[in-house]
Amino acid sequence: MQGAAVFSKRFDQRVYLALATVVGSVVLGLALGVFSLWPSRVESGYTPSQPIPFSHELHAGTLAIDCQYCHSNASKGAHATVPALSTCMNCHSKVQTKTPAGDLKPGLATLLQHWERGEPVLWTKVNDVADFVYFEHSRHVNSGLRCQECHGPVEQMTHLRREHALKMAFCIDCHSQAPEAEAPAAAPTADTVPQPASGTRAPTTCTTCHR
Questions:
Q1: For the chain, N or C: smaller number of CB within 10 Å?
Q2: Cα separation of 33 and 29, whole Å?
Q3: Spatial CB neighbours of 15, under 8 Å, sequence gap ≥ 6
Q4: In the chain, count of helices (H) and strands (E)?
Q5: Up-side HSE of residue 12: CA atoms within 13 Å toward CB?
Q6: Are 66 and 74 in contact (CB under 8 A)?
Q7: 94, 98, 66: which is closest to 80 by C-alpha?
Q8: Cβ 182 vs Cβ 200: under 8 Å
Q9: pLDDT-based confidence at 99, cuts 50/70/90?
Q10: How far apart are alpha carbons 153 and 122 in whole angstroms?
Q11: Three-state helix/strand/coil letters over the chain
Q12: Could you give the CA distance from residue 204 to residue 175 in angstroms, rounded to a whole number?
């Protein structure tokens, strides 16, 4: 006489289903991690496609539009911010270039369609730092750094690309440079920003970027 089954078939099925769910979640998590950290996405030279073929060479180069006209929060906060459609329409409500055939250029036509529908343009981020890194645009912009020091010659880029990998070594190399001029010491306050170590351009302590 065979012994009675310890667990029912239904229980076994639930165990297998739970195991399959765990394995599937792990595989999915690993796949997403590899996708987000793949070298071509985080190294210099990363040039993703965009929903609209926006040319920095034309706007920042030929037309000499200041970076902060579009990225208006760069001198005010941590993030430079992507311009709202209303910023684009300050010009393109009147400037609407056309093809030789008399049609709106495709990129501009797409922009106007988003504007009419009230839909934001979902740009693909090109330059970014790791989530565990604290970076404040205003601190750097107001210290006299040019956008090109981190972002490269954007005024020459038809398609925006990542010029530098923006990893720790890149930041440390910049911070470790000798300061251009010695600023007079100010009386410390509760909001005083940590000052650079002697002989460096900016602080190099861990808590400067990792908070």
A1: N
A2: 6
A3: none
A4: 10, 0
A5: 5
A6: no
A7: 66
A8: no
A9: confident
A10: 24
A11: CCCCCCCCHHHHHHHHHHHHHHHHHHHHHHHHHHHHHCHHHHCCCCCCCCCCCCCHHHHHHHCCCCHHHHCCCCCCCCCCCCCCHHHHHHHHCCCCCECCCCCECHHHHHHHHHHHHCCCCCCCCCCCCCCCCCCCHHHHHCCCCCCHHHHCCHHHCCCCCCCCCCCHHHHHHHHCCCCCCCCCCCCCCCCCCCCCCCCCCCCCCHHHHCC
A12: 6
Over the stretch 68-98, which tens digit does the pLDDT of each residue have? Answer: 999 999 999 999 999 999 999 999 999 998 8
Confidence band, pLDDT 50/70/90 cuts, at residue 100: confident
Q: What Cα–Cα distance (Å) separates residue 132 from each residue in 102, 109, 168? A: 50, 39, 11
State which amino acid sits at residue 165: A
Task: Return the structure tokens found at 109.
Answer: 């036509």
Contact between 104 and 111 (Cβ < 8 Å): no
Q: Phi/psi at 46 (nearest 5 deg)?
A: -60, 120
DSSP state, residue 180:
S
Which of 61-70, 105-114, 188-197 bottoms out in mean pLDDT, i.e. has the lowest?
188-197
Q: How many residues does the chain have?
A: 211
3-state DSSP helix/strand/coil % of the chain, to nearest 5: 40, 0, 55
Pull the structure tokens for residue 23: 């394995």
